[in-house]
Design goal:
- The chain starts with about 20 loop residues before the first strand and ends with a strand.
- It has a four-stranded antiparallel beta sheet with strand order 3-2-1-4, with no helix packed on it.
- The protein is built from two helices and four strands.
- With about 100 residues, the protein is an alpha+beta fold.
- It has helices spanning about 60-75, 80; strands at about 20-35, 45-50, 55, 90-95.
- About 20% of the residues lie in helices and about 25% in strands.
């Protein structure tokens, strides 16, 4: 049976897409426009993930967490760990908060 959750469509991963946590592999990133159609562009970044068809939007908090994962997993210094290109291949958990 449909609910009001079915009325909102998004081209990005949303809470609705994450019923249970997903262990996801970062395959890349893209610059994207987050603005609604017909409004001024609102450019930002999103990660592409092997396990989903939709990209995961990035914000400063997600970026800081992934930077720390990269630093620990790949043994990179902070300045290199915050480069999106170094995130490829990292596995992250995407979950509903």
């Amino acid at each position: 049976m449909p609910t009001t959750d079915d009325l909102k469509r998004s081209k990005f991963v949303t809470q609705k897409d994450v019923e249970t946590a997903i262990l996801a592999t970062i395959t890349g990133w893209e610059e994207t426009n987050f603005a609604k159609e017909g409004t001024e562009p609102d450019m930002g970044y999103a990660l592409t993930l092997k396990e989903t068809d939709k990209p995961l939007s990035l914000n400063p908090t997600k970026g800081q967490v992934i930077t720390e994962i990269c630093r620990l997993e790949k043994g990179l210094p902070f300045e290199k760990a915050k480069d999106f290109n170094n995130w490829k291949g990292l596995r992250i958990v995407v979950y509903r908060d």
